[in-house]
Amino acid sequence: MGSVRRHAILASSADTVWAFIGRPEVLHEWFPTSSTRVEGDKRWVTLPSGIVFEEEILLVDNDLRRFQYSIINNPLITHHVGTVDVIALADDRCVAIYGTDIEPEVLGLAIGAAAGDGLRALQERFGKG
Amino acid sequence: MPRRILFVTTDQQRYDGLGCNGGAVARTPVIDSIAREGIRYTRAIPSNVVCMPSRSTMLTGQHVTTHGVWMNGVPLPVDAPSIAMDLWRNGWRTALIGKAHFEPFLDPFALFTENSLASLGEETVYRESGDGRREPHRGFEHMELATHNGMGPLHYAKWLRENHPEAVAMLYPILNSQLQVNEAGGGDTGAPQVKHNPIPREWYHTDWVADRAISWLGNQDDSDDWFCWVSFPDPHHAWDPPMSELHRVDWRQLDLPAGWVDDPVECERILAGKPAHWLAWYHGTFVSNYEAPAKWVPATLTADQVREVNAMVHIQNELVDEALGRIVGLLRAKGWYDDVDIVFTTDHGEFQGDFGLLFKGPYHVDSLMRLPLIWRPAPSRTKFTPATVDSPVGLVSLAATFADIAGLPRPDYAEAARLPLDDGEAVDLGHERVLTEWDSVLFGKIVSLRTITRGSWVCTATLPGSLHDGTDGELYDLSNDPLQHVNLWHDPSHRAMRDDLLDDMWRNLPDASSPRRACEAPV
Fold it and tell me: Which residues of B touch A110 (CB under 8 A)?
C-alpha cells in the first residue's frame, strides 16, 4: 500500500479555504488536472496526460472540513482513498492536508507530486501562511 | 577557433565494458581510439549510483546533498545551476539528445517539462530568469529525449508510435502491470529483463539517438560554439538489443565475470560480512528501492542467466560504440574532429552478476561506482599528452571541466575542480577524495549511505535506517581486495584507517539542505 501525505499552511481562514476546495467540481482550478465533471456522488477527472479517473465521492463533511473520494473502475488501481482536510490554526490561518492511500503503491508518489503542485496553487490563491 | 564539446553518456555501464578499460568481449574501437588520443581515468566515481542524482551532479557540478536530488523520483529544480545554461548564456548552441532524466518519468499529471516537450512539438521551453531574460530549460535550446523503451511521452516513443507503431510492443516493458520494475524473464535463460527483441536495428533507441544527434550537429555552422550532450539509454536494462545483433556474442561461450561467486554458500558468507541490506536483498526480503524488480529474488540467479545478461550488455555496448562512430564520422566529415573536446562517461554501473546480483541499489562497490570516463581535449585548443589517470576523480568535476574548456572560470556553484590531465595535476587540483551518497525512503524502507573513496580505500558509513543503527559500514582495500569481498570495517587493525577516512568524509561532505525535497515518482 502506498500512503502519502502533503500539507500546506495557508494565510486564510479555514472556512474560506474550505468554501473553495470543499467543492468537488472545482478540482481542476487548483489540482493539476484538465477538467472535472460531477454527477451526484460520482466525479470524472481528466489528467493532462489524457487519463480519466472515475471517482466516487465518499464524504463531504462541512463541519469537519473533510473531503474523501476513491478512484473506482480502474483496471490498474485496486484500492484508493484520498482525503483532503482543512484545519484551522488561527482565525486567519489554516493548514490544508492531502493524503492518499493507494494500490499499486507507486502511484501514491505521482499523486503525492500532484498534490504538492495543487497545494502550491492553493498557497498562491490564499497566501502562504 | 570555435570551441565545441561533445559530451557522450551511456546509462548503467560498467568500467570493464570497454576495450580500453580491459574489457575483452565487446568490441569498442571508437571509444578505445578516443581514449588512446586523450585522458583515460581508471577510477572515476559518481556522486550517486542511480540516474537522477548522478545526472544532476553532472549538470550542476554539485554533490547530492547540495543539488538535493537525493533519490530517483526527486526532480532537479528548474532553476538549479546548470553548466549548459552558463554555456548558453555565453553564446553557445546547446543540445541534449537522448536520456535526460533530471525529472521523473512516471508523470500522469504531466508536471514535468521533459515529459511535455514532445507533445508540445517544441525543442525546449523558455522561462524568464530573475533578471527578466528568457532562458531555455536547463540551458538546452534543443532537447530530443528518449528512454529505454517505446512507451511514454518522450520524443523517441512518439517517433516510434507515429512511424513504427508495431515496434512499440517489441521492446521489453520495463514496468509490469503494477508499475513495478518488471521481473518477467526472457531470452534463452529466463533472466529478468532479457528479451529477444525483433525490432529492426535502425528503429532501436541507440541508433535513433545517434540519428538525432547527427541531425542537430549537421545544422550547426562552422563558426558556432556548441555543447552537445548525446545520452544513450543503453546498456541499462531492459536487456533487449535488436535480435538481429545477437550473433555478436554467444552467451554460451562467455566466461562468468570475476565478481560472480559460483558457490551460493560462499556468496552468502561474503554478503553476510557486509551491512544487513546486502544479504536481505539477496534473499529478497528487503527491497529498498525501485532499481530492481520487487518480486525477483537475486538468490535465484543462475550462472547461465548471468552469461546471457552479460552477452546482451556487450551487444548493447557495441551498438553504442558504432553509433558514436557515426557521430565521430560526421565530425571528421565536417573537418571539426580536432576542434572538439570529447568527454565520454556514464551515470553509474551495474552488478551484472557480481555477488550474485543484478541491477543496482544501495551498494557502494566497484560494480556500481567504478565508471568509464574519457576526456579527449581538442588538439587544436590545448596541448596535452595522452595519459592514464589513476587518481580517484568524480563526475562532480564535469561541470567545471566544461567551463574550463569554454574558457570560463569555474562556476561559483561547482563544488569540485575540473578533471586533471594527469596524476600530477590531480594532486595540484585537489582531487584527493570522491564522495558518494545514497538515500532511499520508500514507504517506510529507509537506507542511507555515505562513502569516501581515497587512494586505494573505499569506506562506507551506514546511517540509521530500517536495517541499520548507524554503527555498521564497509571498508575495502582495493589494492589487495579488488573484488571487495573482505569488509574490514570491524577489523581492529584497520580501525585507524577507517576512522581517518570517516573523519575526512564528514569534514568534506556539504551540509544537507532541510527539509529534504519530496520524492514525486518512483523513477
Answer: 104, 106-109, 520-521
The CA dihedral of B162, B163, B166, B172, to the nearest 10 degrees, is -80
B485 found inside a domain: no
Q: Which of B344, B345, B364, B342 is nearest to B354 (CA)?
A: B364
The domain of B224 spans 4-269+300-431
Best residue in A1, A9, A53, A106 for a mutation probing chain B (most B CBs within 10 Å): A106
Cell numbers that stand for B393 in this block: 576523480
Is B22 exposed, middle or buried, given 0-12, 13-18 or 19+ CB atoms closer than 10 A? exposed
Per-residue pLDDT reduced to its tens digit, B443-480: 889 999 999 999 999 999 999 999 999 999 999 999 99
B240-271 tens-digit pLDDT: 999 999 999 999 999 999 999 999 999 999 99
Tell me if A113 and B443 make a contact (CB, 8 A cut-off).
no
Residue of A nearest to B108 (CA): A49
| Chain A interface mutation, best of B182, B519, B520, highest count of A Cβ atoms under 10 Å | B520
A2-126: CATH topology: Alpha-D-Glucose-1,6-Bisphosphate; Chain A, domain 4 (3.30.530)
Q: Do A106 and B111 touch (CB under 8 A)?
A: no
Q: Determine, yes or no, domain membership for B200.
A: yes
ipTM reported for the complex surpasses 0.85: yes
Q: Residue B205 falls within a domain, yes or no?
A: yes
What is the CA angle B334-B336-B340, rounded to 5? 145
Distance in Å, alpha carbon of A111 to nearest chain B alpha carbon? 8
Residue B289 lies in a domain: no
